[in-house]
Specification:
The protein is mostly helical. It is built from two helices and no strands.
Length: 194
């Protein structure tokens, strides 16, 4: 078998074991075992160092990634806060503009109401003045009518007296004319007889 046979010297050398029946030289075996142990320990330490380095690198990467993510999150949060502040400012500006618009509307309504009330008051005053003028005109008409009645009452007896005097004068004239007519009638009758 050779190297594969553990019972032979060659096989034991290949396997690295002395066995019970045919042990090799103890010093060389110890040195070889020490070398192997040193090599194994060195390999383990290098593997551990490599693992530690890799772990440090991964931790450094993780910390940097965490820092970058934290910075990004902080930037996002600040950006969100800034947008929220802008939105709040816009909303406050909108509210202020709405309040101003409502105040303007209220003042405009009040002013229009005042103007309407003033117009109504002036209209009432004008109506009162017109009614007062109408009343004055009516009173003046009544007074003029009364004066006319009084004048007519005063003139009526004078007219009656004048009528009476004219009637008397007419009677007198007729009385005067009557004898003259009779005389002329007589003259005409005498002429006819002749």
């Amino acid at each position: 078998m050779g190297k594969g046979d553990k019972k032979t010297k060659k096989g034991k050398r290949a396997a690295g074991s002395t066995g019970k029946t045919r042990p090799a030289k103890r010093a060389s075996a110890k040195k070889a075992a020490a070398k192997k142990a040193v090599k194994k320990a060195a390999k383990k330490t290098t593997a551990k160092k490599a693992v530690k380095k890799a772990a440090k690198k991964t931790t450094a990467k993780k910390t940097t990634a965490k820092k970058t993510t934290a910075k990004k999150a902080a930037k996002k949060s600040t950006a969100k806060k800034a947008t929220a502040k802008k939105a709040a400012k816009k909303s406050t500006a909108k509210k202020a503009s709405a309040k101003r618009a409502t105040a303007r509307r209220v003042t405009a309504k009040k002013a229009s109401a005042k103007k309407a009330s003033a117009k109504k008051a002036t209209a009432k005053k004008a109506a009162k003045k017109t009614t007062a003028k109408k009343a004055v005109k009516k009173a003046a008409k009544k007074t003029t009518a009364k004066k006319a009645v009084k004048k007519a009452a005063k003139k009526a007896p004078a007219k009656k007296a004048a009528k009476k005097t004219t009637a008397k004068k007419a009677v007198k004239k007729a009385a005067k004319k009557a004898p003259a007519r009779k005389a002329t009638a007589r003259k005409t009758a005498r002429k006819g007889r002749k």
